């Protein structure tokens, strides 16, 4: 694998994990949202990753399939689960006094954010190390 290919693979990880962090932030911001444009409470969103095949210049020239791959966000799925909270004075309460609230756990979202942040940091470190290797390779040619 060439060094630029390593940079491209790490960049796909940065992009995917950044999107996951943004979705988690959106979930945390809407933990108490009971009304949306679609009707009903906010639905928790989750990111699904998929392998993103990458081809290097060498593979394209040889018309060979690449064994290297990155990551991409395949889709963002919404959870249909809600939690019922007894709040009879709430404007969105039903006849029994229960309000449908988003089923979002702060603990789960923060744990997911920590994992995504560490994966993001790992990709930054990989890119930094690859950059250092490129610079060292250029110094050899001096």
Question: How would you characterize the overall build of this protein?
Answer:
The protein has a two-stranded antiparallel sheet. α1 runs antiparallel to α3. By secondary structure, it is α+β, with helices and mostly antiparallel strands. The two termini are 24 Å apart. It has helices at 3-29, 57-62, 106-140, and strands spanning 45-53, 69-78, 82-86, 98-102.
Beta-strand content: 15-25%
- N-C termini distance: 24 Å
Helix content: 40-55%
Compute the gyration radius: what is it? 22 Å
Backbone structural class: alpha+beta
Number of strands: 4
Sheet with most strands: 2 strands, antiparallel
- Note poorly predicted spans: none
- Gross morphology is elongated
Strand order of the largest sheet: 1-2
Précis, in short:
This protein is an alpha+beta fold. 48% of the residues lie in helices and 20% in strands. It is elongated and about 80 Å long.
List the defining traits of the structure above.
142 residues; single chain; alpha+beta; two-stranded antiparallel ribbon
Q: What topology does this entry show?
A:
Blueprint lengths: L2 H27 L15 E9 L3 H6 L6 E10 L3 E5 L11 E5 L3 H35 L2
Antiparallel strand pairs: 1-2, 3-4
């Amino acid at each position: 694998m060439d060094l630029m290919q390593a940079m491209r693979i790490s960049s796909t990880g940065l992009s995917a994990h950044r999107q996951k962090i943004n979705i988690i932030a959106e979930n945390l911001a809407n933990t108490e949202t009971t009304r949306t444009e679609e009707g009903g409470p906010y639905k928790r969103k989750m990111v699904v990753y998929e392998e993103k095949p990458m081809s290097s210049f060498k593979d394209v020239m040889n018309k060979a399939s690449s064994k290297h791959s990155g990551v991409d966000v395949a889709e963002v799925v919404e959870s249909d689960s809600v939690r019922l909270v007894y709040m009879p004075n709430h404007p969105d309460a039903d006849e029994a006094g229960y309000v449908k609230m988003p089923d979002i756990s702060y603990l789960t979202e923060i744990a997911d954010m920590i994992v995504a942040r560490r994966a993001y940091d790992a990709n930054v470190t990989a890119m930094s190390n690859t950059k250092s290797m490129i610079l060292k390779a250029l110094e050899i040619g001096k």
